[in-house]
Amino acid sequence: MDYFAQQLINGLVLGSIYGLIAIGYTMVYGIVGMINFAHGDIFMIGGFIALISFLVLVSFGLTAVPVILLIVLLVSMAITALYGWTVERIAYRPLRHSFRLAPMLSAIGMSFVLSNYSQVAQGARVKPVPPIITGGHTLHTGAGGFVVQLSNIQIVVVVTTVVLLAIFTWLVARTRLGRDMRACEQDQTMAALLGVDVDRTISMTFVIGAALAAVAGMMYLLYYGLVDFFMGFVAGIKAFTAAVLGGIGSLPGAMLGGLAIGLIETLWSAYFSVEYKDVAAFSILIVVLIFLPTGLLGRPEVEKV
Amino acid sequence: MKSGSATISAPEQAQASRAPGIPFILKKALISAFVALVLFSLMVGVRTEAGPTGQLIYWTRFGELAALVAAVFGGSIVIELLRQWIGPAGATTLVPKQVQSALAIAGRFVGPALLIFTLLVPVIFYNQRYILDLGILVLTYVMLGWGLNVVVGLAGLLDLGYVAFYAVGAYSYALIATTFGLSFFECLPLAGFLAALWGVMLGFPVLRLRGDYLAIVTLAFGEIIRLVIINWQSLTGGPNGVSGIPRPTLFGIPLTPGDDGLAARLGIPFSPTHRIVFLFYLILALALITNWVTIRLRRLPIGRAWEALREDEVACRALGINTTTTKLTAFATGAMFGGFAGAFFATRQGFISPESFTFQESALVLAIVVLGGMGSQLGVALAALTMIGGFELFRGLEQYRMLVFGVAMVLLMIWRPRGLIGHRAPTVYLTKAQAISSDLVKEGRG
């Protein structure tokens, strides 16, 4: 039972990270109707930028950890958001009215570009960082001496996720930009006729998605203590699975799906086999699409001629 | 927002008619350069590496950063100038009519000429092992491209996990041959059959899915196969792979220097090139079989159904085409050819490991099919030649290879989303509109 509780905590933390990435997938799919295949690599870039800015700040002599983390968070969000904007601008916008496979293939190409760009720029080896946020709390000591722990970094990940989600939900539900986004999601032509700048709204969608992916990348860096150029691929597919599981196009669904995938993966590793945890996650994607194609919170899609 | 570097939209055309002057171009280039500066500032300007003690260290590379930003600035000006000279609609008028028709006539002879040249390659380049090896590699990808063309080009099902069938074929041959000692030509149908079986197994769950979802599921499927191969160590040897895979024989006659070898039987001196030439003609034969079967299938009802499915699935169902069997046969046929190619790959290499079957391979084969124009057999062959040849050119720049590949894929999609060479016109279409009298329509025959 204690073991299960511990795995539950670990799974929820991992799920928060997946959820943050999944929001980027689900928003872009909702508005443009394409799978942004390069989004996983945007997450990876976010992790790298967090790592580099952290190193630079430390070497400048900053010692206050909260200040460093806040600056790192803002820097990586800003720069990664610009990456998201550039990717949309270069690879997707010219293809918006092309045939349906074109944006997908362009996205695959962009994914290769981003991952190999960071391999060329930063080297192929894994970049480790020492634990930055240490310590934790013992929640419960079990009969067999098994300790259920909640580390500080886990608290940071979950709290950051919740805060960002709150900000983000407010953004979509209450601001002009959010209203434009929802309008574009329903009918781009009509939205354009009513004075919504569709291009700008789509760009902003990519920017917000990339910023959230950057946060996920930074949390990943803090939680696992490493980044490498290839981590975006698998994390991206899992986050996409989360988005599909939650119902693509639905924001609460993406978070819910993220948590579900995180839990499933953690529990699978804990009780079955670590080697097959990715197989489990990918199988869930297939199973969900067969039996629950609209996801947990999604709307059924009407097939039009 | 209206100042990025690559847009082909309505406002852009309006700008072109205004004929923006030098200040506009400079402003655009400056903004691009600034964006590049921010993008590259940390990723290129600072290089991190794990130091001798395991601690991360970093050093700055402002020279490279400045060079890149300058390149973006210059490139942006060049692109803008080019766009003004050619104009937004220039791409269609770039090639004059006469040249186009001349190209069309020449196009009819490219296929046969290419085939004759390919047949002669081992004769011409007999002493150049490198070219023969490269030829075998190109032909392997031609075959993979033609196999995937059935699924993507004909049936219009975007398959990102094609490498899974390649892997199934390779491992089927490797394991059957090393365990039961069957020869290559006995294993080949088995490998194809097993791959086709997996094709159907993948096909079943994804029957209801559309374009993008289908792509992701096939991708996941490809990864699952690869992960299972890595982790099922007792069967597949895990990351160490399978070695000692038997070399192919000419219907039981080995191509070895021994007394029962082909060279000894023919009474000619042995040369290791014999085996390479044999492999060359073997993969050529396999590829041509793939091509021939595909061309024949296109003329059968099932091939027509594939093309109809590609054009419009809803209309297909309305016309009473069984989309289930149509999709499954497409998957099975494509997978079978992938399996053949995999078996050939295994026998050529003599050693296979999961590293050969990554997502990059799938993307490469898919890029070949797309570059070839999705559905054009000749286009796929030329695209494979271009792609693999291009990869060979970048052999010295190993780490930049995939970067260039990715850039090429994006640019290709922007420039010619329908592929460089081919086009995907349906094989059959009505040459003129059929007039149907109203009484036929009333009876439901229209």
Question: Can you walk through the features of this model?
Answer:
The complex is a heterodimer of chains A (305) and B (446). Chain A is mainly alpha-helical. Chain A has a single domain (2-291), classed as ABC transporter involved in vitamin B12 uptake, BtuC, CATH 1.10.3470. Helix content of chain A is 72%, strand content 5%. In chain A, strand 2 and strand 3 (147-151) form a beta hairpin. In chain B, 68% of the residues lie in helices and 4% in strands. Chain B has a two-stranded antiparallel ribbon with strand order 1-2. Chain B has a two-stranded antiparallel sheet with strand order 3-6. In chain B, strands 4-5 form a two-stranded antiparallel ribbon. In chain B, a hairpin with a 5-residue loop joins strand 1 and strand 2 (56-60). In chain B, helix 6 packs across helix 17 and helix 8 (184-203) packs antiparallel against helix 15. Chain B is globular, with a radius of gyration of 26 Å. Chains A and B meet through helix 2, helix 3, helix 4, strand 1 and helix 8 of A and helix 2, strand 1, helix 9, helix 16 and helix 18 of B.
Question: Nutshell version of this structure?
Answer:
Chain A is built from 11 helices and 4 strands; from the N terminus they run ααααβββααααβααα.
Question: How would you describe this structure in keywords?
Answer:
heterodimer, A: 305 residues, mainly alpha, ABC transporter involved in vitamin B12 uptake, BtuC, two-stranded antiparallel ribbon, 11 helices, 4 strands, B: 446 residues, two-stranded antiparallel sheet, 68% helix, globular, disordered N terminus
Q: Could you give the order of strands across the largest sheet of chain A?
A: 1-4
Largest sheet of chain B: 2 strands, antiparallel
Q: How much is the radius of gyration of chain A in Å?
A: 19 Å
Instruction: Work out the largest interface and the residue count of each chain.
Output: A-B, 76 and 68 residues
How does CATH name the architecture of chain A?
A: Orthogonal Bundle
What fraction strand of chain B?
under 5%
Radius of gyration of chain B: 26 Å
In helices, the fraction of residues of chain B equals: 55-70%
Summed up, the helix count of chain B is: 19
